[in-house]
Design a protein that fits this description.
- This protein is mainly α.
- It has one domain.
- It contains two helices and no strands.
- The chain is elongated, with a radius of gyration of 15 Å.
- The model has no long low-confidence stretch (mean pLDDT 82).
Length: 62
Amino acid sequence: MSGLIGELIEGIVDFVTDVWVARRLRANRGRPERSLGDDAAKVAVLICRCWDWACSPWSAVR
């Protein structure tokens, strides 16, 4: 997909998939369940931290 709408849909699908994978991994490791909102918040924080880490060298180049 191209364009703004396509990228938005792709981002939402990626996020939902990341939350689903995180919940499955947590269940497979035998850890207690958390709410869907807690898992979504943890994934969002992880994505933001990884994005900052990945993009920080580029901000130094500018």
